[in-house]
Specification:
This protein has 473 residues and is an alpha+beta fold. Helix content is 26%, strand content 51%. A hairpin with a 4-residue loop joins strand 9 and strand 10. The longest helix has 42 residues.
Length: 473
Amino acid sequence: MHGRARRRLGGWMLLLVAVLAVRAAAQQPAEAAALQQAQKLAWSRHFAEAERIYRHLLRQSPNSRDVRVGLARVLLWEGRYREARTMFLQLVARHPSDVDAAEGAATAAYWQGDFRTAAREFRALAAAHPERTSAVKSLHDILLATRGSERVLLDATNDNQPYRLWRSEAVASVFSDPLTRWDVTAGVWRADNPRLSVVRSGPYVVVSNEVGLPWQRLTITTSAGVLRWPDGTTRPIGGVAARLRTSATSSIEAAIDHRELLRTSTAIGGRPAVTRMLLSWSRYAEKEWLAGFESGRLQYFDRNRGWYVQGYGLWPVMGRGPLTVFAGASAALRDTRDSRFYIEAIASERSGSEFLYAYRGAYTPYWTPQHLQETRAIVTASEAVARNATIKIQAEAGVARDRAQSFGPSEGPSPLPSTIFVFDFQRTFHPTRFSIGASLALSPVYALELSAERNTTVFYRAKEFRATVVRHR
């Protein structure tokens, strides 16, 4: 009896195996069709539908290599690089000879921005499998992106304060590894105040370091240097910033820096500086809408304080061939605790028995906007005029309102007023800005960038010119 039961059980087991084999054979064509459909959806960029099919297949066949590779590739193309790399590495752990999975893991690191890891893994793949042209090309692209460069810049400003400011500098950039860049800047500034017949100049040197933490989506930048100020003293400048990438197109940044203030003509006699603390957000996507927002607090060298909030938005209104046109607007609020607007000169003219007084004031030694509110309309257009040249034009115009100061009295019995008083008034003006720039690739190694700009504010009109030559190694 025991023998008959054992033979009966064996028969049932053979029947079960046969049924499962028939079912598996019936499922194979359906699974292959679903796998092919998922691949087609992925190649046509219908990633969500492809992922749904791949995950369904993975539940049915958790050990299927083709399903796992397909799902990892969809995650990669969706920009979910951490998940994709994890799946590719799991496949490599199971099958060390799986070259597709190894290249997928390296690509995920590359697209995440982890050039250090990607370069190491692509280099190993290129050495072991030189026929993998995509791995060789990716390694070549990483080496190009992390090559050093040199840049020479000339910058000149001429305005009706009257004031002239020149700056020339040379910058050398090197990478100590694919995620760490060093910039060494050496330059000279020169300022000329024709009204006072005073000319000042001084050198400066700055060393900057940028470190990328791609898997944390973080970039940390530090800089430190020294600058000789108009009064002949040498003081440090520099700062630190941290930028967090919140999406493929946007990021937020927090920074603190200490810089010179040499844009006002009266700055030619001291060492005006400002420490700026800011928080900003920006969005950039090629041929899509652009925007930025920034808020900051200013601590001046003379214990004065200020703050500002500003932002802009631009939307594409034309994208015809090489021509791209954006239109949008900007807005800003600015305020400074104490005005630095002082009397620079007094003139009088006799009118009968009285003298009429005229006062000339200046911001000494830096501009101090008070209760400033500003809005501008912006139009910008860029066009690739040749395969190696691009021209960009930007125009801004708006309306602004602030609290200004003036001096009195307006007339008196003597050639000069015996007493002078200050009073505030509301002022409305129309700021404008027009710029044109050109970028030209002179060769695979050299590039030239030129720009000219005209700014109009309530207290000066300025023309700025800049020329930059860049050499890639």
